[in-house]
Design goal:
GO molecular function: ATP binding; ATP hydrolysis activity; ATP-dependent protein folding chaperone; unfolded protein binding
Bound molecules: adenosine-5'-diphosphate, magnesium ion
Shape: elongated
Helix content: 40-55%
Keywords: ATP-binding, Chaperone, Nucleotide-binding
Pfam families: Cpn60_TCP1
Family: Belongs to the TCP-1 chaperonin family.
Protein name: Chaperonin Cpn60/TCP-1
Largest sheet: 7 strands, mixed
Distance between the termini: 19 Å
Length: 514
C-alpha cells in the first residue's frame, strides 16, 4: 500500500544517517581554512556575476546557496551564532561538522544514536563548566575590550587599516552607547564610504545619510538645527494637473499658471514659517519650491529612503509628518549640527550632536567596494563582541586555549561515565580539538605536534594557546598577548553546534516530496 506520492523519495536507516552526516561535514569543511588570524578568504561569485570576498563564516555559508536540508542546519548554526553573539560563526560550524564526523565513527562502532545524543549533551555541560573556569578574574576594562575587538578583527581584510586602530574606534563607539540600562548596540551604525586612497576611520556622534541638498543654493551647514521629516510631496500634485482647465483665453492660462505658482509658494511658505531649518522628505521637492526654500536658508533633502527617514527620526527625535497642514514645532527633532560633505562622487549628510548624539556612527573609508564590505562585516562583528564582553564582563583566552581546556576537562570527567556513553563523551572532546588543530594547520604548523605541545603547556601553565603575532607563532598564555574572546561566543558555539549535530544524528528517515 502506498501512503505517499510515488514521486517522493525516501532514505532510511544508516543510509539516511550517513548521507545527512556527510552533507553536514562537507559544509563545515568548506569554511575550515578561513578560521583564525591566518585564515584565508573566500571569493564567492553568484549567478549574476556579483562577487563577495570574505573571511566571515556566516557570510560564506549564506552566499553558498546550500540546499541539502542537513547541510542547511549547519548554516543555521552559523546564523544563530551571528545573531546571538555576532562572532564565532566559523568556529561553531566547524565544531558542528566535527561532532557529526565523530558521530559517524560511533555509529559505525554500533553505538546507538540515542547514546551519542546523551553523551554529547553531557559533554556539552562539562564544556560549559570548563568555559566558566577559563573566565578572566580581572575586570573587563577598556584595555580588555580593545583586545576583544582586535582578536575579532585580526586576519580580516581590513584594507590599509590595522585591527589595532580599528579596535580603539570600536571600543569608543560601544562606550558611547553604554548606559545604565545596558549597551544600546542598535545605536551604533557603520557607514562605509568608498574613497580612493583614504584609509581613515572616524567616530561621528550622530548619523550619516547618503543625501545631497535639494538645491545648490542651500546652506551646506546648519547649526542648532530644527529638523522636520516629511512624507509629503512639495510640488504640484499630479492629480491637480490633470484637472481639466478649459482654457479659452490667455487670461485663463495665466490664471492657471498663477494658481500653480501660488500653490508652490504656499508650500515653501508653510515650511519656512514653521521654523524648521532642515527638512528631510521621503518625496520629491519641486525645483521652484526648493529655490524658494534655498532663499529662506532652509536645507532640504529630498527622496529619502524609508529606512533613512526612520533613522533620522529616531536619532533626532523628530516625528514624521504626512500632511503639511499638520506641521508643528512639536514634531521637530534637533541636532547640534547638520553638514554635507562630498566624497568622490557621493554626497553625505552628517547629522551630529544634540538629540542625535545618543547614536554614533563608525565612518569608515576604504579603497574598493570589496574592501569596505568586508570592513563593514569585521567592524560589525567587533562591535557585537565588545558589547557582549562589556555586558557580561566575561572573557576567555582565545587562540585555542579555551578549547584545549574544554577537551581536557571532558576527558577527565569521561573516566567516570559508564558504558558506551563514555565513548560519545570522549568523542565530543576529540571534536573540540578541531579548533586548535585548525588554527595550527592554518598557520602552517603540524596539527598533531601543536596539539601535543598545547596540552603539555595547558597541563603545566593552565592556559595555552597558539598565538599569532605578526610573523611569529608561539605557544603561550593568550591573556598575556591580549588574545581574548567573549565567554558567550564560546558558550553559544558549544550549544548551537551540539544542538545541530545531535539533531542531525537522530534522523534515520528522510522523506522528500518531489
Ligand atoms: P570565527 O568565525 O569562529 O570567529 P575567526 O576566523 O574569526 O573565526 O577566528 C577566530 C579564532 O581565532 C578564535 O578562536 C580566536 O581566539 C582566534 N584568534 C584571534 N586572534 C588570534 C591571534 N592573534 N592568535 C591566535 N588566535 C587568534
Ligand atoms: Mg571571528
Amino acid at each position: 500500500m502506498f501512503i505517499m506520492s510515488e514521486d517522493s523519495q525516501r532514505t532510511q536507516g544508516r543510509d539516511a544517517q550517513s548521507s545527512n552526516i556527510m552533507a553536514g561535514k562537507a559544509v563545515a569543511e568548506s569554511v575550515r581554512t578561513t578560521l583564525g588570524p591566518r585564515g584565508m578568504d573566500k571569493m564567492l561569485v553568484d549567478s549574476g556575476g556579483d562577487v563577495v570576498i570574505t573571511n566571515d563564516g556566516a557570510t560564506i555559508l549564506n552566499e553558498m546557496d546550500i540546499e541539502h536540508p542537513a547541510a542547511q542546519m549547519i548554516v543555521e548554526v552559523s546564523d544563530s551564532q551571528e545573531e546571538e553573539v555576532g562572532d564565532g560563526t566559523t568556529t561553531a560550524a566547524v565544531l558542528a561538522g566535527n561532532l557529526l564526523g565523530e558521530a559517524e565513527d560511533l555509529i559505525e562502532q554500533d553505538v546507538h544514536a540515542t547514546t551519542i545524543v546523551e553523551g554529547y549533551h553531557e559533554a556539552s555541560e562539562i564544556a560549559l563548566e570548563a568555559i566558566a573556569e577559563q573566565v578572566n578574574e580581572a575586570d573587563v576594562d577598556d584595555e580588555i575590550l580593545r583586545q576583544v575587538a582586535e582578536s575579532c578583527m585580526t586576519g580580516k581584510g581590513t584594507g590599509g587599516l590595522t585591527a589595532e586602530s580599528l579596535a580603539e574606534t570600536v571600543v569608543d563607539a560601544i562606550r558611547h552607547v553604554d548606559t545604565d540600562a545596558g549597551v544600546a548596540r542598535d545605536n551604533v551604525t557603520v557607514h562605509t564610504q568608498i574613497g580612493a586612497s583614504s584609509n581613515a576611520t572616524e567616530l561621528v556622534p550622530g548619523i550619516i545619510v547618503d543625501e545631497e541638498p535639494a538645491h545648490d543654493g542651500m546652506p551646506s551647514e546648519v547649526e542648532d538645527a530644527s529638523i522636520a521629516i516629511l512624507d509629503v510631496e512639495l510640488g504640484v500634485r499630479t492629480g491637480d494637473v490633470d484637472a481639466e482647465y478649459a482654457i479659452d483665453s490667455i487670461d485663463q492660462l495665466n490664471a492657471a499658471i498663477d494658481a500653480e505658482e501660488g500653490e508652490l509658494e504656499g508650500y515653501a511658505e508653510t515650511v519656512a514659517e514653521s521654523g524648521a531649518d532642515v527638512v528631510f522628505t521621503t518625496e520629491d521637492v519641486n525645483d521652484r519650491v526648493a529655490n524658494a526654500l534655498a532663499n529662506e536658508g532652509v536645507l532640504v533633502f529630498e527622496g529619502l529612503g524609508d529606512s533613512d527617514a526612520r533613522q533620522v527620526a529616531s536619532a533626532t527625535g523628530a516625528r514624521r509628518v504626512g500632511d503639511l497642514d499638520d506641521l508643528e514645532e512639536s514634531d521637530f527633532g534637533s541636532a547640534d549640527r547638520i553638514h554635507t560633505e562630498t566624497y568622490g562622487d557621493d554626497d553625505l549628510a552628517f547629522v551630529e550632536g544634540g538629540a542625535a548624539a545618543e547614536t554614533v556612527t563608525v565612518f569608515v573609508r576604504g579603497g574598493t567596494e570589496h574592501i569596505v564590505d568586508e570592513l563593514e562585516r569585521a567592524i560589525g562583528d567587533a562591535l557585537d563582541v565588545v558589547a557582549t564582553a562589556l555586558e557580561s564582563g566575561e572573557v576567555v583566552p582565545g587562540a585555542g586555549a579555551t578549547e584545549i581546556a574544554i577537551a581536557d576537562k571532558i576527558r577527565q570527567e569521561a573516566a567516570g561515565i559508564e558504558g558506551r556513553k563514555q565513548l560519545a563523551v570522549t568523542a565530543f572532546a576529540d571534536a573540540v580539538d578541531i579548533i586548535p588543530r585548525t588554527l595550527a594547520a592554518n598557520t602552517g604548523r603540524d596539527p598533531i605536534d601543536v596539539l601535543v605541545d598545547l596540552r603539555a603547556a595547558h597541563e603545566s601553565e593552565g592556559r595555552a594557546g597558539l598565538i599569532t603575532s605578526g610573523d611569529e607563532v608561539t605557544i603561550d598564555d593568550p591573556f598575556e598577548h591580549g588574545v581574548v574572546d567573549p565567554a558567550d561566543v564560546k558558550r553559544e558555539a558549544v550549544e548551537s553546534a551540539t544542538e545541530a549535530a545531535t539533531m542531525i544524528a537522530r534522523i534515520d528517515d528522510v522523506i522528500a516530496a518531489e
